[in-house]
Description:
The protein is an alpha/beta fold. Helix content is about 30%, strand content about 25%. Among the domains are: about 10-40 and about 80-115 and about 270-345, FAD/NAD(P)-binding domain (3-Layer(bba) Sandwich), CATH 3.50.50; about 120-270 and about 360-385, FAD/NAD(P)-binding domain, CATH 3.50.50.100. The strands form eight sheets. It has a six-stranded mixed beta sheet, with helices on one face. It has a four-stranded parallel beta sheet with strand order 11-10-9-15. It has a three-stranded antiparallel beta sheet with strand order 4-5-6. The longest helix has 20 residues, at about 135-155. Residues about 430-465 have low confidence and may be disordered.
Amino acid sequence: MTDSSSRHRLVIIGSGFGGLFAAKALKGKDVDVTLISATTSHLFQPLLYQVATGILSSGEIAPTTREILRRHRNVRTLLGEVTAIDLAAHTVTSTAYGEVETTPYDSLIVAAGAGQSYFGNDHFAEFAPGLKSIDDALELRGRIFSAFELAELTDDPAERERLLTFTVVGAGPTGVEMAGQILELSHRTLRGEFRSIDPTTSRVILLDAAPAVLGNFGDKLSGKAHDRLTDMGVEVRLGAKVVDVDADGLVVEDDSGRERIESRVKVWAAGVQASPLGRMLADQSEVSLDRAGRVQVRPDLTIPGHPEVMVVGDMMALDGLPGVAQVAIQSGRYAARSVLEHSAGREMAEPFHYTDKGSMATISRFGAIASVGPVKASGFVAWLLWLFIHLLYIAGFKNRITTLFHWFISFLGRGRAERTITERMIVGRGAIQALGEDFRPTLAGRPVAGGASVRDDTPAPGATD
């Protein structure tokens, strides 16, 4: 990276689709790029549910950012949580492991993405994790697989039923894909592996306050998705709003009143909230935020009064664009072109224009729906299209090959290569206590007390923190 002060300095916040594709578009250009991210990896978020259900490993969908950008000599990557953006001073402050770094910029691209929204009920997160990060996926994997293990250990029919009832809140793509995979895991992969329980008796309940499954796909495809889920055995309940969640279950409200569903494992796939960095920008400028905390950008993705600052991807609100990968990729590339124009003393001639390349979602093995322009497809053809598109966007040839191999194992066979759970993966607080004081199973050679994970300060022999 050149130290010349004459070179334009760009800071990118976030290593998701928007930030990464902006950085890649500037390879070899006369711009010094600093990419700051709270994680060391680029996450392919659409496949997180496959990490949570044991199909893929985290490394296959989250390669390190440094590896991806190793040949981009004008790009520097920094690990850090952004704690301050000073629009007047043109600096970004980040912290990592107690170290504080202040990075100056001439242009700034904010691509920090979005997290899970619990609609003001943040305490739900303890009992119903979302699916927005690798940590979320690994925790859910632990909860899902350990639920079957604990069900095998208990003789209490009520507790066994709670453990084998899986609830997914949110009937969008993430919720539908998650519900379908949990159902296939219990009915297909785990069949015949236990002696005291029958995994095929597990219940998978999909809940949403909306009137349709995958409503954004239109009535026809939405109906096909609904029919496929119910044919598989997923219990779909629409118009059902979740009003309370605890360790043992949740409470839903619909036109007939309130009902409690006993369920140890709950997945929250409803609602998103943009990064709090949007509020940081709003406090220093005239920019407005929408209800989800997204920044209402100008047509050229800049914020009012600051043409050097652009917001892209899930953080931006513009013309009702959805929070999908293609919006992030295209806006990131547009922002990179804008930086080049800005560094040359010019302005972008055209506003940002999004080209819709379609939407798709898997429902089951060999079953999906796809909406690509005028083409509406479902079933096996849509599933093949989904397979091809997702494989195309996974970063790195090696990851594509290993992902294809694991898909072959899971979809043509019954195996799942990533089923390991550790003592730190939990099924939910209170799961062990509910089984009684004398119930103390052992995981990984160590007794579990007070929950399905050991969280004391003493590492196991040979372990390191």
